């Protein structure tokens, strides 16, 4: 960033913030396209991406609630949350898909997400939050802010992936469960 006159610094900083905001939108589109190809389902891609976009909204809300302003550090964390948080959601979605491929029904597949998957994600999130919390103890304001909101972002990503992604998968595949139950009922009635 250019140094010198305060107005020059402000203009350069403001432009960088705008670029980071637009990179969040562009990154979201790339993630959606990549997940759609990888999952072979636009619906599952949307279910995996939506919780992380909510994390960005929650993060901006907390930044405001804590009395911080949008600056290069806080905008950077919001952008990073897309890359960091999507891993958690992909992990949840893939675990659900693995359980379904093993022939488990909808309820058992969702329970599989809450078992070993949850333990792995919680362990990963705790270690990441611990690392960022150490940075939050810095006496330098920018590092302190970065560490604090990065740790919060990890926690919010964990919650979003375990609660919202799982709920989204439950809703998305509920129709599938209802159809299979109807097929079983019709077979029982026919016999």
Describe this protein's structure.
- With 191 residues, the chain is mostly helical.
- The chain has a single domain, classed as Up-down Bundle (Multidrug efflux transporter AcrB transmembrane fold), CATH 1.20.1640.
- 88% of the residues lie in helices and 0% in strands.
- It is built from six helices and no strands.
- It is elongated, with a radius of gyration of 21 Å.
- The termini are far apart.
- The mean pLDDT is 84.
List the helices and strands and how they pair.
Layout: H1 6-39, H2 42-65, H3 72-101, H4 106-136, H5 141-172, H6 174-190
Helix pairs in contact: 1-2, 1-3, 2-3, 2-5, 3-4, 3-5, 4-5
State the main characteristics.
191 residues; mainly alpha
End-to-end CA span: 76 Å
CATH topology group: Multidrug efflux transporter AcrB transmembrane fold
Radius of gyration: 21 Å
The SS-based structural class is mainly alpha
Strand content: under 5%
**Secondary-structure element order, as H and E?**
HHHHHH
Helix content: over 70%
Q: What is the assigned CATH homologous superfamily?
A: Multidrug efflux transporter AcrB transmembrane domain
Number of helices: 6
**Uncertain stretches:** none
Number of domains: 1
């Amino acid at each position: 960033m250019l140094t010198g006159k305060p107005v020059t610094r402000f203009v350069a900083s403001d432009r960088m913030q705008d670029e980071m905001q637009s990179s969040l939108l562009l990154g979201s589109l790339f993630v959606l396209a990549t997940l759609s190809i990888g999952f072979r389902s636009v619906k599952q891609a949307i279910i995996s991406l939506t919780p992380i976009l909510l994390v960005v909204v929650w993060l901006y809300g907390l930044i405001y609630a804590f009395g911080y302003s949008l600056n290069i550090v806080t905008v950077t964390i919001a952008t990073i949350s897309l890359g960091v948080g999507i891993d958690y959601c992909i992990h949840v979605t893939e675990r659900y898909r693995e359980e379904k491929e093993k022939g488990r029904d909808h309820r058992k597949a969702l329970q599989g997400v809450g078992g070993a998957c949850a333990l792995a994600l919680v362990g990963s999130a705790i270690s990441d939050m611990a690392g960022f919390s150490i940075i939050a103890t810095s006496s330098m304001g920018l590092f302190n802010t970065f560490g604090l909101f990065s740790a919060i972002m990890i926690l919010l990503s964990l919650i979003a992936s375990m609660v919202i992604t799982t709920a989204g998968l439950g809703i998305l595949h509920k129709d599938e469960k209802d159809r299979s139950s109807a097929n079983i009922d019709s077979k029982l009635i026919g016999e």
